[in-house]
């Protein structure tokens, strides 16, 4: 259907990947008695935005970070409520390389878990970490480490 509507070809492996996710969402929606009338209530944008602003107040001025986080978290909360998890093959690398951003992400997501009654795994936390690390990289002052040796 997409191929006909937009006049392009989707490789078979991508069709199967999309089908897996759609099937999982349909299955979980039926298991949770979610109907089309309840799905629009999952739009959490404003609630998420306020929570993100409250928790990341030191980053308040960065609209790019806030907007990207809210978009990501809105989709993530919807997925988690439907029982759809995503895998991040770089989770361990992200955790070890970006410890400060991972810590900030954990703190933020704990508040979101409490408010929206969902549970973020390390894979999802790692994706949020990339948003925060991107901000830190953009606004981190260029620090030069200098060693002065006097004789």
UniProtKB/TrEMBL annotation:
Gene3D superfamilies per UniProt: PRD domain (1.10.1790.10)
Q: Which UniProt keywords apply?
A: Repeat
Claim: tRNA processing is one of the keywords in the record:
no
- In this chain the PRD domain maps to 36-142
Determine the domain of life of the protein's source: Bacteria
Q: Matching PROSITE patterns, A to Z?
A: PRD_2 (PS51372)
Q: Give the signal sequence positions.
A: none
One of the GO BP terms on file = regulation of DNA-templated transcription
InterPro entries, alphabetically? BglG_antiterminators (IPR050661), PRD (IPR011608), PRD_sf (IPR036634)
Query: Which PANTHER family does this entry report, sorted A to Z?
Result: CRYPTIC BETA-GLUCOSIDE BGL OPERON ANTITERMINATOR (PTHR30185), LICABCH OPERON REGULATOR-RELATED (PTHR30185:SF13)
Q: What is this protein called?
A: PRD domain-containing protein
Name its species: Enterococcus faecium
């Amino acid at each position: 259907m997409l191929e006909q509507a937009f006049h392009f070809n989707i490789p078979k492996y991508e069709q199967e990947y999309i089908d897996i996710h759609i099937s999982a969402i349909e299955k979980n929606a039926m298991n949770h008695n979610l109907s089309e009338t309840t799905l629009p209530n999952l739009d959490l944008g404003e609630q998420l935005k306020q929570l993100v602003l409250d928790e990341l107040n030191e980053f308040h001025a960065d609209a790019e970070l806030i907007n990207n986080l809210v978009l990501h978290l809105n989709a993530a909360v919807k997925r988690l409520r439907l029982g759809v998890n995503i895998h991040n093959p770089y989770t361990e690398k992200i955790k070890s390389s970006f410890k400060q951003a991972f810590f900030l992400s954990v703190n933020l997501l704990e508040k979101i878990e409490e408010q929206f009654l969902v549970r973020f795994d390390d894979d999802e936390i790692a994706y949020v970490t990339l948003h925060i690390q991107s901000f830190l990289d953009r606004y981190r002052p260029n620090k030069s480490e200098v060693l002065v040796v006097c004789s």
